[in-house]
Design goal:
With about 350 residues, the chain is mainly beta. It has five helices and 19 strands.
């Protein structure tokens, strides 16, 4: 899915959240559920004990950066919740709409706040080449595939698999030790939101606030003790916001972390988490059919990003040099004594 936000509500019925992104939660009653691309929520609904009225459900498509267009956007779709075919429909005056409060929801199985072994700062921003070609980036690195699929590199390069450069700088790879706890600070300073999706793992939502808040007034954080934070695999980082999430790297593999707007990932908004490459080499064997498919397509299946079984990276994809602002704007800023 690569659309704006979705909301779901049923008139005069509470929704009991019981699962988020595949993780069971303690039930929580809400009036409306909001989801970004790649997010999933399961709810239970308690039916009325009378058939005197029928009701409507509502699906609203909206986002936080496109101005409303009366009668067009946000878009609303209505359906019927029928208790009796002859009963009247209970029409409400307003439809609820609110952010999904991740910091107040707990997992069903208790797991306390994880203590991070390392932290990474992830600047979710765009960048521009000297020719003013835009890219979507994480830390001003626009992702490009290597000549060798990174999973093959992790499996075939021995001890070099623990070196991020093996996968090519254009993949923005982080190599993680098996079972270590990683803190990710998502930082969204631009006018665009980003639903950030991690493959192969779920993460705890620990804190969120505004990037330009110097007082801490916008800071929201889960309790440090006695609380089991929500775990999910996709967090919606709105424009001008930061989010802190933590996960345990306990699933060996090569995993994408990317924005789930398809046009953003198409412009480079992706990076790789290589988890436990030594453990991966000991436990995984690729099916011969997969290797054969690559052979038929002319895709190399051994070696580093350039297809070499050494420290030779000649022929690997180039990493474009990107500025955080258009070159003309950057030149004006530099001339004024500023910096990007």
């Amino acid at each position: 899915m690569s659309l704006p936000l979705w909301e779901f509500a049923i008139d005069d019925h509470e929704l009991y959240i019981v699962e988020v992104d595949g993780v069971l939660t303690k039930p929580k009653a809400v009036n409306v559920v909001r989801m970004a691309p790649a997010q999933r929520v399961s709810v239970l609904v308690r039916a009325k004990n009378t058939v005197a009225k029928n009701y409507q459900y509502h699906i609203t498509v909206l986002d936080e950066y496109v101005p409303p267009i009366p009668g067009v956007y946000p878009a609303q779709f209505d359906g019927a919740v029928v208790y009796h075919p002859d009963a009247p429909v209970d029409i409400v005056q307003s439809i609820p709409s609110e952010r999904f409060d991740e910091l107040s929801i707990e997992t069903l199985e208790y797991e306390p706040v994880l203590v991070a072994d390392q932290s990474m700062f992830l600047n979710l921003t765009y960048g521009f080449t000297e020719e003013e070609i835009p890219f979507e980036t994480i830390n001003l690195i626009a992702y490009q595939d290597s000549l060798v699929p990174s999973l093959f590199s992790a499996l075939t390069t021995g001890e070099r698999a623990i070196n991020p450069i093996t996968y090519g700088p254009q993949t923005n790879t982080r190599v993680l030790k098996y079972n270590e706890v990683v803190e990710m600070l998502f930082w969204s300073p631009t006018e665009l939101p980003h639903p950030m999706h991690l493959h192969g793992h779920v993460f705890q939502i620990i804190e969120r606030g505004l990037v330009n808040d110097t007082t801490g007034a916008s800071r929201q954080r889960v309790p440090d003790t006695g609380f089991s934070p929500l775990q999910r695999d996709t967090v919606h980082v709105t424009q001008g916001e930061y989010v802190i999430a933590r996960f345990r790297a306990n699933n060996p593999g090569v995993w994408n972390l990317h924005c789930h707007f398809s046009w953003h990932i198409g412009l480079g908004f992706n990076m790789l988490m290589v988890v436990g490459p030594r453990e991966l080499q000991r436990t995984m064997r690729l099916p011969p059919a997969v290797i054969e498919q690559c052979r038929i397509q002319g895709i190399a299946t051994h070696g580093n990003a350039a297809g070499h079984n050494s420290f030779n990276y000649m022929g690997a994809p180039d990493l474009p040099f990107l500025e955080a602002a258009l070159p003309e704007a950057a030149a004006k800023l530099a001339a004024a004594g500023g910096s990007i």
